[in-house]
Design goal:
The chain has about 300 residues and is α/β, with parallel strands linked by helices. It contains 11 helices and 9 strands. The protein has 2 domains: about 80 residues, Helicase, Ruva Protein, domain 3 (Orthogonal Bundle), CATH 1.10.8; about 190 residues, Rossmann fold. The longest helix has 15 residues.
Length: about 300
């Protein structure tokens, strides 16, 4: 856009904006376009700006835009300002109630979708643990409309946002429960009946959370990051509890932190509950998601804690 205000503010963002590695699409130009549209009264995610022409701003709107940019540069996440975030080709509502969906988590989403589409069941069951704003659950629900999908999270605020998002994306039938990890599904209705179990757990060690970028540690919920002293507390629970939920031949698909993939892949391969393990790497070759298929026949006591 050839506009003096646009050029001025783009230069400010190019100089001062810190673009985090896990939000690579939030470039200075994309950030400015999103905030410009917001100042003009339109909430858009990054994916929507290319098809939207920037409106002329009157003086109050221009002042509002400058304030929005100041807030963004102070560390407030772009998605918290716009209330919108892209994930798996859909646009979701975003807020401080839950982790802002990351591009890297799409590797988990697309990998789980491939397993879901390969299910023989006419209406496969999906359970998403640590669901946050519901991004993985709803990404799967939108792309696999034949699936029945549930999600759970310990945070009441996150569950409220996930429920809003279910209506927002046109899948109000997706059910979200508030509860501790897999406890909402610890019943005969779910045990041994889930085709695909997904999870994007907290996997950052407690000691490292306070060293994360200001934009993350100050504005996003610690509950979504803190994985305990070694960053594997929730991952250990996942490997222990997943076999009880999965039907024989069902798949567990989950995200892992940088540097955790190899060890967890080896651990999965040693668990008798699982017959097959797959690793999914990012563009840099780092394992960021793992999948494990529930063995069709197991012996008692084979789901010992990792």
């Amino acid at each position: 856009m050839d506009h003096p205000l646009y050029r001025e503010l783009l230069a400010v963002l190019a100089r001062d904006l810190e673009v985090l590695p896990d939000k690579p699409d939030e470039t200075p130009a994309n950030t400015l376009a999103c905030l410009w549209n917001l100042a003009a009264g339109q909430r858009l995610a990054v994916s929507q700006i290319a098809s939207t022409r920037l409106a002329e701003l009157d003086e109050p709107a221009a002042a509002a835009l400058k304030e929005l940019i100041a807030r963004r540069l102070s560390g407030v996440p772009l998605a918290h300002l716009t209330g919108r975030q892209d994930f798996m080709g859909i646009v979701l509502q975003a807020s401080a109630a839950a982790l802002v969906p990351r591009l890297e988590t799409e590797l988990l989403g697309w990998s789980a979708l491939a397993k879901l589409r390969a299910c023989e069941a006419a209406a496969p069951w999906v359970v998403d643990l640590c669901t946050g704003c519901g991004n993985v659950a709803l990404g799967l629900a939108v792309h696999a409309p034949h699936a029945k999908v549930w999600g759970s999270d310990l945070s009441a605020e996150a569950i409220a946002l996930a429920r809003d998002n279910a209506c927002f994306v046109g899948r109000p039938d997706v059910v979200f429960y508030e509860g501790d990890f897999a406890k909402p599904f610890d019943s005969p209705e779910f045990l041994g009946r889930v085709d695909v179990l997904t999870c994007n757990p907290p996997y950052i060690s407690s000691g490292k959370v306070d060293t994360m970028p200001h934009e993350i540690r100050s504005y996003e919920p610690r509950l979504a990051f803190d994985g305990g002293p070694f960053g594997i507390g929730i991952l250990q629970r996942l490997l222990k509890e997943a076999p009880r939920l999965l039907k024989p031949g069902g798949w567990l698909v989950f995200e892992v932190g940088l540097g955790q993939g190899d060890a967890l892949q080896q651990r999965l391969s040693r668990l008798e509950a699982f017959a097959e393990v797959e690793a999914f790497a990012d563009a840099d070759g780092a394992i960021r998601a793992l999948a494990a298929r529930r063995r069709s026949a197991t012996t008692e006591g084979t789901t010992d804690a990792p």
